[in-house]
Design goal:
By secondary structure, the protein is α+β, with helices and mostly antiparallel strands. It has five helices and four strands; from the N terminus they run E-H-E-H-H-H-E-E-H. The chain folds into two domains: 60 residues, Glutaredoxin (3-Layer(aba) Sandwich); 52 residues, no CATH class. Strands 2-1-3-4 form a four-stranded mixed sheet. Strand 3 and strand 4 form a beta hairpin. The mean pLDDT is 94.
């Protein structure tokens, strides 16, 4: 099992999700996406793994989203991916990917990750 967590260490849900993964004896690859922002292609790939439109990966409660004056149409995945690349704080978190299975899940609530970790 090859697990990647797109993690924000200041987020309690992200920390709890990481803890649940490690409790299972799994050492995931940790990507602190605010330090290492994802590019537009990676963002679209994540949405594909989750089986949702890119707009579903937005944290609409974030002030950067609410106050955005340059936000493209939420139905335009290409433009939205480019925008999200520039505003990574708006990305839903945490996102956990099982690379070997080609599946992903959002760790909200953190217990969602157990579904992905079941063999």
């Amino acid at each position: 099992m090859s697990i990647v967590i797109y993690h924000h260490p200041r987020c309690s849900k992200s920390r709890k999700t990481l803890e649940l993964i490690k409790e299972r004896g799994i050492e995931p690859k940790i990507v602190e996406y605010l330090q290492q922002p994802l590019d537009a292609a990676q963002l679209k790939q994540l949405a594909g793994l989750l089986g949702v439109p890119l707009a579903d990966l937005l944290r609409k409660s974030e002030s950067e989203f609410a106050e955005a004056t340059d936000l493209p149409s939420l139905s335009d995945d290409d433009a939205l991916a480019n925008w999200l690349q520039q505003h990574p704080i708006v990305l839903q978190r945490p996102i956990v990917v099982d690379q070997s299975a080609g599946k992903a899940i959002v760790g909200r609530p953190p217990e969602n990750v157990t579904e992905l970790l079941q063999k």
